[in-house]
Specification:
Largest sheet of chain A: none
Number of strands of chain B: 25
Low-confidence stretches of chain A: 1-23
Shape of chain B: globular
Strand content of chain A: under 5%
Oligomer: heterodimer
Mean pLDDT of chain B: 93
Largest interface: A-B, 42 and 59 residues
Radius of gyration of chain A: 20 Å
Number of helices of chain B: 12
Distance between the termini of chain B: 35 Å
Helix content of chain A: 40-55%
Helix content of chain B: 25-40%
Low-confidence stretches of chain B: 1-22
Chain lengths: 185, 424
Amino acid sequence: MRKSRLGMALVGVLLWPAMALADADPIEGLAWTCAGCHGPAGASPGQTIPTIAGLRPRHFSEALRRYRSGERSFYVMRIIAKGLSDGEIDALAKHYAAQAFVPTKTTGGGVTAMETAACSTCHGADGKGTDKGPRLAGQPAEYLETALADYRSGARKTSAEMVEALQGLSPAALASLSRYFAAMR
Amino acid sequence: MISRRKVLTAAGIGIGTAYMPFVGAAELLPKTGKRIVIVGGGWGGATAARYVKRAAPDIDVVLIEAEYAFRSCPTSNWVIGGIWGMADITTSYDRLTSRHGIHVLRDRAIGIDLDKREVRVTSGQVHFDRLILSPGIDLIYDGIEGMDGAGRARFPAAWKAGPETAAIRRALEAMPSNGTVAMTVPLGPYRCPPGPYERASLIASYLKKNKQGARLIVLDANQKIISKGKLFKAAWDELYSDIIDYRPEQELVGVDADTGTIRTAFDDIVADVGNVIPPQRANGLLFDAGLVPKGRRWAPVKPWTFESTIAENVHIVGDATDQATVGRVPKSGYVANSMGKVAAAAAVALLEAKEPPRPSMANTCYSLVNDTEGISVTALYKFDDVSQKFVVPPGASGLSSGRSTIVARNARDWAHAIWADMLG
């Protein structure tokens, strides 16, 4: 039954040469499941879910491994990451790294006179990330603010540099920094 | 079933002698290439349409949907709770056409000829090479006394987002401040397992602020809260202990629209506002096409491709599918979105005589418990080669640790992200 159907379909394809499917990326089906929250182009339209398209593979993989090990505790990703193998994590990282970063829409004004020299050491002068620190420019403001607040409170310990850098900053300063980077292009 | 057949007959008469269905005619959209037809522009169907186009832009995609716009069931409880308006959960189908080249046929599917590979709509018929059915559910009112027109108007289900959603909202606003709201929850499986409990939470939240002295009686046919139970229970105990009266194992017997009474095997409850969520089954279109076996309520599928186990060239996705064949996945919007993607990839591959890829699915389901706080459940599903069904890898399923504002903010953003995923 199955054979004959495939045979029929094969005839169909031969008669219809215009069909061209790009080489199937074996990780694509798994990557598609991310889109329900992170959006069809790896970029959520909201303010709390980060863009995952266009991230350096190193940062993408590191984030998922930290969710899987429990070093990062976000309540959705710590569960999803448990089901992913190292190979799948690295393949997803490669898949999303190949796509363009889409800046999220920023509401509210950015900060104009913010001292961000310390940030640029790892995140780059343009905020687009280096091997040392992930991209901040264009990520959603509420997502960035939550990350900063978690470092500030000690809930997130994945970077000693971040914990140190945020010492003495008020919640208002964290909010300003977040809006500054969210608005950066 | 009988009523659906009556509708079918009526539609046939309505079409008249211009053409007989399936005999000699009226192909609405003459084909120029390979075509995948999708029935139902909800979570499974709209997603499938987009992802067929994404995988194979040259395939002709026709989406058959009777509604003028998409109205989201997930987040429709927020309208009942007064957090969002109907406009916030309504999205046009226009971008599927303008941005993605999908033909949206605004008509009602009324029959399927599996041999001729045609879907019949009220205005004619559409031929397909492969068919993806995402028709959703039908509500089962048989066996509930008094659920005639008046009964349904007095006790709307609001289990498909639309006029009934708005009607319950209006009734809540109009009720006396010390009044009684009653709702019934059917035995699982039904669409959106946490949906009734989110609804109860948001009704209670509204009553707490606006109708002091009012109470909400939840008559649940199940033995306990069947989704996110621990989290809902904690929220209800802490926020609504004087408002929500939760009664498990309540078998709904009937209603009386004149007196506003809901009758269970144990009690008669007179309610100012009543919401009866009846038992459910796959949409009647699937029964009529013979895609649901005798004695079953849901359509069996092969989960690698979501092809029907009964018919060739036909995929079935969404709430209408039988969990006994798919694996233990909830009837949720996110899962329907995942199924739509798996079916799209499989349908494109099979049309091109290629092997369908290994499928994966996910679920994240958010529920608000008040205006600002939410709870969630998350899972990843992979195909298990031994059982030939979807299973959760060890550890890859669980709840949010408690209720929080971040979950509620994520819920809002998730809705916009997944609507963009489905509808462009």
